[in-house]
Design a protein that fits this description.
Blueprint lengths: L11 E4 L17 H8 L4 E4 L1 H4 L11 E3 L2 H8 L4 E3 L6 E5 L5 H18 L7 E2 L6 E5 L5 E5 L2 H13 L4 E7 L6 H8 L8 H15 L3 E6 L23 H9 L3 E3 L16 E5 L6 H6 L5 E5 L18 E3 L2 H12 L26
Parallel strand pairs: 1-2, 1-12, 2-3, 5-6, 5-9, 9-10, 12-13, 13-14
Antiparallel strand pairs: 4-11, 7-8
Length: 362
């Protein structure tokens, strides 16, 4: 209706599913994207990260979504960085020197296709001066992580790209093919931990921490042989040889990082976050711990089981537990409307009198 306006500021939600912990939802290629899409219809701004949004060759742009790498998410939640949305980023690709010629050209053609079909702004690529030497590891808890033999080579390549004008960095690193067969098969059947997710986080964290610029990673693998038993949750990784399209699409609209001294009108800061939604057993991350000290509503989802058992109660975090993401979205809708969620139940408890301490007669 013409002339209508609201004094209410945008309702802002952060959706977090930590990487490499075997999350039942969000532990596979883009399987938390339906949650993000639904949640974005309730939130005015939805802040989330590549682990939620990336679906290999599949992606879904959210007009009100902020695509923020995990280290940047932690810095934002701690109040050290703000988020500045913009019209679009110029993306540079950094290729691992270890990628074989055929696989390199395949990924270069993917980048060209994203330019020609999606209109993304890509600048000339950089190849690292040394093989990065990605190593994959798995902790006793079952979570995945990894290391780089030559992190210095990655940083030199990223620095060269930024010097040439890049506003975001997409890294394509050659990942080992010799993965433990049992782990791979469990993951492909929708029952295990993503064996590469932890190492991917190491790569993107390094670039974001060093340069304070949006970054995401796409692993380079040889195509896997056909397996008719692959679970639907893992199927996005079976439809081609590249994970790059979703990374480029996400980075194209990722917000830039700013420090408090650089802030201006339109930037987003942690004190504007109204709610954070997390798996109930994965509450120990830096972003969640920081947000638990703010006024933000902490929503813990029981159904999103992980290999961790770090509950809000164990950490002294005041959280509202819900059974699943459908309940979480309903809770957010009530919170946004300023409603007491208990008023949506069939039983409403009467108000009770709070006792007042009597003054000391002495």
């Amino acid at each position: 209706m013409a002339g209508e306006y609201s004094h209410r500021r945008p309702y802002t939600v952060m959706l977090v599913v930590p990487t490499g912990i075997g999350a039942a939802i969000g532990g596979y290629a883009g399987d938390a994207l339906p949650v993000a899409r639904a949640m974005a219809t309730v939130a005015d701004i939805l802040i989330t990260h590549p682990n939620v949004m990336n679906g290999a060759q599949l992606y879904w742009p959210l007009d009100n979504g902020f695509y923020v790498e995990g280290y940047g998410l932690d810095q934002f939640a701690a109040g050290a960085w703000g988020l500045r949305p913009g019209p679009g980023n110029r993306i540079a690709l950094v290729f691992d020197q270890a990628i074989e010629e055929t696989l390199f050209w395949r990924h270069r053609q993917v980048a060209e296709a994203c330019r020609a079909t999606l209109g993304l702004a890509l600048q000339d690529y950089v190849v690292t001066d040394q093989p990065l030497g990605v190593r994959l590891c798995q902790a006793d808890s079952g979570t995945s992580w990894g290391t780089l033999e030559r992190p210095d080579s990655l940083l030199r390549a990223a620095d060269r790209a930024i010097s040439a004008g890049a506003q975001a960095i997409a890294v394509v690193a050659r990942f080992p093919e010799e993965l433990e067969e049992a782990l791979v098969q469990a993951y492909r059947r929708g029952q295990g931990v993503d064996p590469v997710a932890g190492a991917e986080a190491v790569i993107s964290h390094l670039v974001v921490r060093t340069f304070a610029i949006p970054c995401a990673h796409a692993p380079a693998f040889s195509p896997a042989p056909l397996d008719r038993t692959v679970a639907p949750k893992a199927a996005a990784e079976e439809i081609g040889y590249t994970f790059l399209p979703c990374v480029l699409a996400g980075l194209s609209r990722a917000p830039q990082f700013v420090t408090p001294g650089q802030g201006c009108r339109g930037d987003l800061w942690v004190d504007q976050v109204d709610a954070v939604v997390i798996p109930a057993g994965a509450c120990g991350g830096s972003a969640v711990l920081s947000l638990s000290q703010t006024r933000a509503l902490v929503v813990a989802v029981d159904a999103n089981l992980t290999h961790l058992q770090v509950t809000p109660e164990a950490l002294g975090i005041r959280a509202t537990r819900v059974g699943n993401y459908l309940e979480a979205i309903g809770l957010l809708a009530a919170h946004k409307a300023g409603l007491d969620p208990a008023m949506l139940d069939s039983q409403v408890q009467p108000l009770a009198e709070l006792p007042v301490d009597s003054p000391d007669p002495t």
